[in-house]
Specification:
about 600 residues, alpha/beta, Glucose Oxidase, domain 1, 2 domains, eight-stranded mixed beta sheet, 21 helices, 16 strands, globular
């Protein structure tokens, strides 16, 4: 089927809007490319420093005729998703030698676990860590010794930060290398139930700890469809992974074979060969639109509404919130993975996974097929799935029908005809809501506001039994300028309990929710934020708020917000402790949520 005219129209609008920025970016890319392989211009002393510890690879490196691959790794033991990366450099170096290349760890980048920092002060560094990761990867690549790069990262801010860095070094081919999800543990809905029971005081901490440890139990990505797994979907949709590599479990023969194949492919697409594929050319407006389509079709994380614009700006592409809403209006929701359903990503993968999803979207004309990818030209390659046949990696045609229609459905028979995210606009500003997990009867709420300036105050009010009627909980001064825009996921159990008691309840905030945000309607990323005198700073307790996810509205009807003076609370406590004092310059420089909330652009 030909590409949807609506998809082409949106893509053209982005192309025109971005034309000047993209042209300047591509000029810089071509200039760097025309200078030739960077190592050819290093002095002998420069090179000696770079190769001193490389043992048997030193002669090959000094000769400069074989590709040298830089490894940028986000390995640490704190993230279960990243722990498998510990042994990747050794495997990569061996695979590079087989491919007639060399490989060096260029540098490491920080990688924080949002699951550890939820509800804690450290979460106020989380979003800014994306920019730190981009900066750290930039330092790693600044040695200018690499003909291609392998980026080892999976989780929430890590992949976006690495993509920003890869785009900045856009003349260098780049392959993103995943490690896969952990095997299935305690079902996510059962874990969520125990969390709600603990919030309501029905079970003790011992039962909560037992449930959490049974859910997060081994190496690999957390199995719900949050930001980390949404990132992995995006890397395939945007052509930066090898096809089918996102959701293969760690420490398996197929996982290792895919990693070795990523090395071989990176060596083959450098400027030294005949198939040069600079990552900056792959990351064009079509690739980003394909990523947005994947986000809507799978009901992915709201965090990507922040990350995709920041990633795109690094490649000279200007995305705006209405682009997401426009795509969501006609791309169907084809997947139900927790928190949008009961399945986890392993079940999604077994039901046909991305190979089926991409094939369906291509057949429906809902993706740009004519794109460049690290695997070759055309996105159709990503409708195939990798297998080991007689010990050798090969790709076969992906499934043509879903293997479980409760998890994954064809484009012609989706779970809903529109995507998983909506933009909200109104006199309270612009916001985002994830609707894929919200029941139809909860998508519209009109109720009095209860105003808070931090999430702990919400929990205290809940514990005192103060929520007894329909309420819109407003948590303001949680934006990037105020305190780094933390996720407020620790409010989910509390609000879910209220919803379960039959109350109509919603959250409105200039902060973020987790990629696992679920059944409670949440208008998030409200912009302008309260700390910039946005409308939320003018709200008062008892003001009527209407959140209508069906029509895309967020209003305080009948309230003359312009006649009120915005409150200006003391935010000095956000400036110190747990490293927050190191990020004052980020808070001062950060842009609005509508542009990706980055301090870099």
């Amino acid at each position: 089927m030909p590409t949807s005219p609506r998809l082409l129209e949106i893509t053209e609008r982005i192309r025109v809007r971005s034309a000047a920025h993209r042209a300047a970016y591509l000029d810089r890319l071509r200039q760097a490319r025309d200078e030739g392989p960077a190592r050819a211009h290093l002095s002998c002393s420069n090179q000696a420093h770079a190769y001193a510890a490389m043992g048997g690879d030193k002669d090959s490196l000094a000769a400069g005729r074989a590709p040298n691959i830089g490894i940028v790794t986000a390995y640490n033991d704190m993230l279960s998703a990243h722990q498998p990366y510990e042994d990747y450099p050794k495997l990569i170096r061996a695979a590079a030698r087989k491919a007639g290349a060399t490989a060096q760890v260029a540098g490491g980048v920080p990688a924080m676990c949002d699951g550890v920092t939820q509800g804690r002060a450290g979460m106020e560094l989380s979003l800014f860590s994306r920019d730190v990761i981009a900066l750290a990867a930039g330092v790693a690549m600044s040695h200018n010794c690499y003909d291609a790069a392998l980026y080892l990262g999976i989780c929430d801010k890590i992949v976006p930060g690495l993509v920003i860095a890869a785009a900045t070094f856009g003349h260098v081919p780049a392959v993103f290398v995943p490690a896969g999800p952990m095997t299935s543990g305690l079902p996510n809905d059962e874990k969520s139930k125990v969390r709600q029971q603990f919030a309501a005081g029905e079970v003790g901490r011992d039962k909560l700890m037992e449930a959490e440890m049974a859910s997060y139990h081994g190496p690999g990505t957390c199995t719900f469809y949050g930001t980390a797994n949404t990132n992995q979907m995006l890397m395939e949709m945007m052509g930066l992974h090898l096809p089918g590599s996102s959701f293969v479990n760690p420490n398996t023969p197929l996982r290792d074979a895919l990693t070795e194949a990523a090395v071989t492919r990176a060596a083959a697409i450098t400027a030294l060969g005949n198939d040069y594929r600079p990552v900056g050319e792959i990351l064009d407006e079509r690739a980003f639109v394909n990523g947005i389509v994947g986000l809507m079709a799978t009901g992915g994380s709201t965090n990507l509404v922040l990350h995709l614009p920041a990633m795109a700006r690094a490649a000279g592409i200007l995305l705006e919130p209405q682009d997401f809403d426009a795509v969501s209006a006609f791309v169907p929701l084809m997947a139900k993975v927790y928190p949008n359903g009961l399945a986890d990503v392993n079940h999604f993968h077994a039901a046909g996974g991305l190979a089926f999803l991409i094939g369906e979207l291509l057949d429906a004309g809902l993706l740009h097929e004519d794109v460049r990818t690290v695997a070759g030209d055309g996105l159709r390659r990503y409708a195939g799935e990798p297998v080991l046949a007689d010990g050798r990696l090969t790709w076969r045609e992906g499934p043509k029908s879903t293997l479980n229609d409760r998890i994954l459905r064809p484009a012609a028979d989706p779970f809903q005809p529109t995507g998983g995210l909506r933009e909200l606009t109104g006199n309270l500003g612009r916001a985002v809501i994830k609707v894929s997990a919200v029941a139809e009867e909860h998508r519209v709420i009109e109720a009095p506001a209860r105003i808070f300036t931090d999430q702990d105050a919400v929990k205290t009010a809940f514990q005192k039994g103060e929520f007894t009627a329909d309420t819109v909980v407003v948590v303001r001064f949680q934006g990037p300028r105020a305190n780094g825009m933390p996720e407020l996921h620790s409010l989910t159990p509390v609000l879910s309990v209220l919803l379960g008691r039959g109350l109509k309840v919603a959250l409105v905030t200039d902060g973020r929710m987790s990629g696992a945000s679920g059944k409670v309607p949440a208008a998030i990323h409200v912009s302008p934020e309260a700390a910039c005198d946005g409308p939320l700073a003018r709200l008062r307790d008892g003001d009527l708020i209407r959140l209508d996810a069906t029509s895309g509205r967020l209003d305080a009807p009948g309230v003359d917000l312009g006649a009120r003076t915005p409150i200006a609370p003391d935010l000095s406590a956000n400036r110190f402790g747990t490293g927050r004092e190191l990020f004052e310059s980020f808070r001062r420089a950060v842009g609005p949520a509508t542009e990706g909330a980055s301090a870099l652009y």
